[in-house]
Amino acid sequence: MCFTRAKNHMRGFTLIELLVVIAIIAILAAILFPVFARARENARRASCMSNLKQIGLGFMMYVQDYDEKFPPYLINYTSPPTEPNGVTPNNPYAWADALQPYIKSTQVFQCPSESKSAPLGVAGSPFAGQPDPASWGYTDYWFNSTLSKQSQAIITSASLTVLSGDGSSGNAYYFYNGCSITGNASDITCDGTTPYSTMLSTKQAGLFSRHLDGINYAFADGHVKWLKSSIVDGGTTINGSNAVLNFNYTHAEAGGKPTFSPS
How many angstroms separate the CA atoms of 65 and 67, rounded? Predict the structure, then answer.
């Protein structure tokens, strides 16, 4: 009896087939990677909004304890800002560490999309081993300086009055009014003839496009909102916002847009 053994023929991929598969994978990666990056940034934006929500609640509790007045943006400030005037955890440097008794977390002041971390105090200082409010990097969020030491009563529309928002990085007195950031005037026109908000270009570092071409703002009524940024004053990149008006524009003049002006 004759037996015929069947032969198994193994067929491999041709070069053309491999190239086609590689091309398909490359196309899928090109499509999906931006989607993944956007999803990650959406998560960071949500975390940042949570930070600002807690900061806003901290302001509300502070106001209730201090005759319905907002904190000064500067409390024990001197220049250079190095442990001035006996600053301790119980004797605040500026507005940000003045909120610590209510927030009880320095991490809340760190936006997850901003890479600079808070420097720790040196050995022998009141802040040894913990974030130092006098150091640059203590907070990534600014305080609307037009509200400094002001009574809540002057606010005519709390839901449209900016309280705090995304910044680059600063120490505990980091403040902004839609034009001037920590006392540094904008290098482009930002006054009563130009309603947009902007800031000194060297202080921006891509700030206005941080969260998907916009930034987060906390408002005087406690809510937080992301608002889209824009190109202003003939710039070539995103350098401000037409959605939020600077402190020169009252609510009556703002036409329903948010503004840094409390009245």
Answer: 6
